[in-house]
Amino acid sequence: MKSVIRHVGFSALSLAVLAGCSATNGSSESAQATNQVANQTTLVALSAPPQVDQALTLNQIMANPDWMGLLAKGAYWSDDGQSIYFARQAHGAPTKTYYQQSIEGTAASELALNQLHSADQRRGVLNNDKTRKAYIYQGNLFAKDLNSGKVVQLTRQNTAIDGVRFLNNGDIAYWQGDNIFKIHQDSGLLEEIANIKMAAEPKGVQEPSSYIAKQQHRLIQYVAMQQDNAKAKQDYKAELAKADPTMSAKTWYLGDKEIVTNLSLSPNGRYVIVALKDKSYSWRSEHDIMPNYLGKDGYVDAVPARARVAEDNNPGERLVLLDLTTHSKKDITIEGLTGFDEDVLAAVKAENAKAKGESYKSEKAPRNLQLMQDWGWSQSAIQWSDSGDKVAVMLESVDNKDRWIATVNLDKGSLITEHRLHDDAWINYTFNQYGWLPNSDSIYYLSEETGFSQLYLKQQGEKPQALTQGKFVVSDVTLGPKAQFIYYKANKTHPGIDNVYRVEIATGKDEQLTQWQGQLNYTLSPDGSALLLNASTRIQPAELFVQPIGGELKQLTNYTSDAFKNYAWQAPEVIAVPSSHGAGEVYARVYLPQGYSKDNADKYPAVIFNHGAGYLQNAHYGFSGYFREFMFHNLLAQQGYVVMDMDFRGSKGYGRDWRTAVYRQMGTPEVQDLKDGVNWMAANVNVDAGKVGTYGGSYGGFLTFMALFNEPELFQAGAALRPVTDWAHYNAPYTSNILNTPDVDPIAYERSSPIEHADGLQKPLLIMSGVLDDNVFFQDSVRLVQRLIELEKPMFETAIYPVEPHGFRQPSSWLDEYRRIHKLFEQELK
Fold it and tell me: Which residues form the signal peptide (predicted)?
């Protein structure tokens, strides 16, 4: 059935909208996904795209995205599980609007500003019997009685509180800066239980030590009297502190050379674990700035910029155990960690030494460690048992090769290795959730040790038990409220399809709870009876659904605009490209041109889009986070192009080996996969291999460079947006994972940095960067442009965007950027 596009009037929220008289709804889209899970790679698996009477325009698809609908964000359950809360925010708006909606499906009600403090909060802590909840709102502390619903504000101050927990006796403890306080539930007394100062401990009254000082005290009675009085006053204060229960706890002095980076209080209120880092270490380079040429006062503003991996020297962290009862402290030693002193980079160092005509001798030495820095979790790397007499810490080596789960001997201040995850490439910065089962000696955790993130259970001192097994990725672990089940998300049926599962801890029985055919995220209700889903399909942006465990799925929100959902968008086919490099199958999305025919006399031009982040999944059955690119690819298809989005090696969702294929060789396996993609399109969808272009942003821009520089015949043109040109200039947390550090592994950096290969450019290249990009610096593009000028390369052009950060914000910038990309492809591929 043909669709008709009609233009509707402009509004304050959108420049243009699309509407149609026939829609592809979510249910039919889900059915399509189900039928395509087999994912055949032959032509017969590809269905013809929908026909449209009026083509898309760049002005429409790059307009303010509010025309697509203001979707619900950050949804979570109410405390009683009978409603949900979420926010909506217009594009570019400085503030959000918050809503509450019943799970019965009634319309959402907007929360007034004076209601926000008492609204059920997404994050909070419960007391042991789950009758009270404590939470932080706008930096202040509140407590809620879950039976009556009464909310009490406990603090009102301008200095924000950093964290809160209930103690086992029902008191509430919170920490603010480097200090920890307790509110007694019976009296309301506010007690400072730990005052931590990063300073040298005062020496107190000192006895004279030199000859002159001793003589002065011996001969001058007044001086001796002052000494005696000072000592008496000091002794009195010490005795008073011991005898008087109204006195606050003694101050902890931890030295003046470090800063507190993390602290965690035990549930029994006795212990504090403090993480310390050398205070001279900084996230930024002192000599570097990012210039803002359009400062509000008319001058160039010097904006502080992060350090580069080439100048980063992370010293790691050390842990200190404070006993608040005995006022004693212990440095937590790392000798109990298996392999803490291994030279895990010996082979890499030897290879680099040999390249310089040198030799390398491996020696054992303690490695720099830190608390695990997972990029996606909200939990702490320090996990206490319910009683507070056991604690586990998750540590990682700064060299990125090891992750440990260790318990702490609270009497000795030593570590006991419970689990070591080693990777010769790098430990993943996600899939690190873990915690204690209630009232037990068992820890559950995620690990990629089999090649895929799976869920494990381990009793202290015993071998681990695998709760899930298979070639799929487990994530988003939730322990059920009664600790009977562990809930998780996994892509078991297809790498691009998510569903929610649960495993019964006692029996190991595994159960699929949802039957979605796209992408989703979930939140378990407080009583464990239902799931809140944020779910999407290929042509349907994410909406909120609720599904009782074992019940029917119900849609709660419908914020996608009619203008968007009624348009006959082409749902990209998800196909698997056979790898010619032993990588198995490379998943990709494919858009087919209007009027497509395998027998068309004229072969089709094609474009391959390279997603950003490197470690990201885009060839899935959900709505792409690259929503503008999704619409742009529909536009290109309407204009006669075949378009492919490929999850080249290094992408997320396919396991450890896929992720680490780029180790020390970024840009090599990915370009191999792109070449297989071009060959697949030529063999299966009638593409002219001599008329293929490529583009992408961030990592996708980097990959565009590597393809054009190292395989000059593969693509006829390329556009690199906000691109990395030299990995030595990117940040340490990301880059050191994959390429180690430049001082250790220059071979990897020279092999992987586009600026080192720029002399291979032969085809037209468009470079586009935001001047205010604090992620991939504008300097990256400036350096490459100068390099291309000096190489006398005439086939490149540049475009700069003076007000844009890494993710562009202004619709006018998006429009300008994609006009240039479109023009490049029209000129070079047709």
Answer: 1-19
| pLDDT score of 427 | 98
Q: What is the mean pLDDT of residues 381-391?
A: 96
Residues 375, 390: Cα–Cα separation, whole Å: 26
Within a 10 A sphere around the Cβ of 559, how many other Cβ atoms? 16
User: What is the rounded (10 degree) CA torsion for 577, 581, 584, 585?
Assistant: -20
* Strand-strand pairing, 796-801 and 765-770: parallel
3-state secondary structure 586-610: EEEEEECCCCCCCCCCCCEEEEEEE
- Please list, in sequence order, all residues whose beta carbon lies within 8 angstroms of the beta carbon of residue 95, skipping any fewer than 6 positions away: 89
pLDDT digits (tens, 9 = 90+) for 449-501: 999 999 999 999 899 999 999 999 999 999 999 999 999 999 999 999 999 99
Residue with token string 């842990």: 319
Task: Compute CA distances 809 → 559, 761, 806, whole Å.
Answer: 21, 31, 9
Q: Tell me the backbone φ, ψ of residue 371, rounded to 5 degrees.
A: -60, 145
Could you report the per-residue pLDDT of 72-84, keeping only the tens digit for each?
999 999 999 999 9
* Residue 62, beta-bridge partner list: none
Residue 779 φ then ψ, to 5°: -60, -30
Among 89-93, 142-146, 444-448, 525-529, the minimum mean pLDDT is found in 89-93
Residue in the block written with tokens 């395509």? 36
Instruction: Say how many CA atoms lie within 13 Å of 722 toward its Cβ.
Output: 26
Q: Is 573 helix (H, G, I), strand (E, B) or coil?
A: strand
pLDDT band at 19 (very low <50, low <70, confident <90, very high): very low
- Global confidence as pTM: 0.91
pLDDT band at 92 (very low <50, low <70, confident <90, very high): confident
Half-sphere exposure of residue 642: CA atoms within 13 angstroms, side-chain side: 31
The two tokens of residue 787 are: 């390099």
E strand segments, 33-104 = 73-77, 83-88, 97-102
- Where helices occur in 639-767 by DSSP H, the ranges are 656-659, 668-684, 699-710, 732-739, 746-752
Dihedral over alpha carbons 248, 254, 256, 257 (to 10 degrees): -160
DSSP three-state, residue 398: coil
In the three-class reduction of DSSP (H, G, I as helix; E, B as strand; rest coil), residue 544 is classed as strand
Q: From the CB of residue 215, how many other CB atoms can be counted at a distance below 10 Å?
A: 11
Q: CB of 167 within 8 A of CB of 267?
A: yes
Residues 191 and 248 sit within 8 Å (Cβ to Cβ): yes
Q: CB–CB of 828/764 below 8 Å? A: yes
Distance CA 224, CA 700 (A): 76
